[in-house]
């Protein structure tokens, strides 16, 4: 008697199509992906009457799939991964089918409580300090993205400091990060009303493998204090987007603490690896942080979106973000007996995202997840070795996790020509349709990024990818 019960079968069909695409390794015709290509293939307006599922799915196969970049392909190495898994997919289906909106505890008690439990589970797997657990003042919350996590932390920190120094001091508040920090921080500053000149971007270079030097932070903070500014927010990195740089959390946190600066740690990609005891060292010092973020939707087999944010002081968030209109009042909230996650995030409505993370943790178990991560890191290590054995190439920064940053070496020290050559290599490799890489710039060098982390990637895919890269490079070098 469930309305539209047949839609569950449709959901299953969609999943089968996606699997077939990958199993058949469908070639993407790049010519179809010119801007506006879909406008030429679909009608200008919605149909007046229902069409059949077969018609719609046929269009998905012939018109939509050719216009997709296959993030789940085993040879997708471009951006940090966005893992999909059977457990994650089942959780998504269940959540979509249940269709609850758990903004307050009362709107679906299990949704709020499962989120608290699952974030505590993961905090324990990461060996985060007790203050991040839900039993005291701290706790975890699922955001849609690392960008939202940074924004929410910054707004909590901003209002906390403004309560101390007075609302008029907004123009004096200063934010710090290295120049390797994700652009999400700048966006958060824009939204939070931080003056652009007060977003201090400190240089990190190859001498520290692009990690922020604590002396630079100390210098900048002291200078700003002398000038009458108010340092209030520091974003540290564990696994930067460009090159997986890891900032020295303990030393940065010490400076933050002694200057009453909120310390946020962005481990959006690399946080997942830190459930393995041998990689936990990269978040040593997290005990000095006020907030910590990792994206389970990147490298933790949990379908997009599922970004995990832990804070030590939940009241910093709720003071800044809570609203209490009459139409949302209820006994549990009024009595302060429950967590209402609407007050820990920007929107009101929220999906039942903890379900998929819970299913991933239960259906795979921590040991499988650790080995999953280790396998990708091993594949990246093997690739790093292959790159370093080829005299035409160099590894630009030492690999830490599963990202390899490399380039064709310059000839006659001509860095400009070298950059052009590496850009051409990227275009040639991606145009082959056999794999997908991306690039970044490190100290002015154009660098190719190979991020290994798709669930279906095996040794053979990495080896074949390297062969394509070598072949395209020799062709370019001959030219
Ligand atoms: N931080 C880091 C280190 C990232 O690598 C990324 C994206 O790749 C982000 C933040 C932004 O992530 P999101 O898309 O979840 O906002």
UniProtKB/TrEMBL annotation:
SUPFAM superfamilies: PLP-dependent transferases (SSF53383)
Keyword NADP recorded: no
GO MF entries: carboxy-lyase activity; pyridoxal phosphate binding
Cited CDD domains: DOPA_deC_like
Keywords: Decarboxylase, Lyase, Pyridoxal phosphate
Chain positions found as N6-(pyridoxal phosphate)lysine: 298
InterPro entries documented for this protein: Aromatic_deC, PyrdxlP-dep_de-COase, PyrdxlP-dep_Trfase, PyrdxlP-dep_Trfase_major, PyrdxlP-dep_Trfase_small, Pyridoxal-P_BS
Record Gene3D superfamilies: Aspartate Aminotransferase, domain 1, dopa decarboxylase, N-terminal domain, Type I PLP-dependent aspartate aminotransferase-like (Major domain)
Pfam families: Pyridoxal_deC
GO terms for biological process, alphabetical: amino acid metabolic process; carboxylic acid metabolic process
Requisite cofactors: pyridoxal 5'-phosphate
GO cellular component labels: cytoplasm
PROSITE patterns with a match to the protein in the record: DDC_GAD_HDC_YDC (PS00392)
Superkingdom of the organism of origin: Eukaryota
Family under the similarity heading: Belongs to the group II decarboxylase family.
Protein name from the UniProt record: Phenylacetaldehyde synthase isoform X1
Annotated source species: Raphanus sativus
Record gene name: LOC108810635
